[in-house]
Amino acid sequence: MLWGTHGKHHENGFTLLWDRSQGLKHAVPFVPFKDKDIELGKNGELKNKVRLIVRHYIDFDDSGVARIYLSRLVDLTNKEI
Hints:
This protein is an all-beta fold. Helices cover 0% and strands 42% of the residues. It contains no helices and 5 strands. The chain has strands at residues 6-9, 15-18, 25-28, 51-60, 66-77. The radius of gyration is 16 Å and the shape is elongated. The mean pLDDT is 80.
């Protein structure tokens, strides 16, 4: 999940996320499918937080130990995964 308890979608294709307690803000290239996808609960908090969908590629070293050697951002969503 991305940092942010509150959010607002802008027409430029980005959604501004911020955390009320920390005051941190960042804009992510996330366009909700419908306005209801940026649903607010009580106190104006996001009901569905924005999540990263990441693909990790695993490789094994000579001793057989697995490690993530590459990660790729695939998409953003606010649905439970």
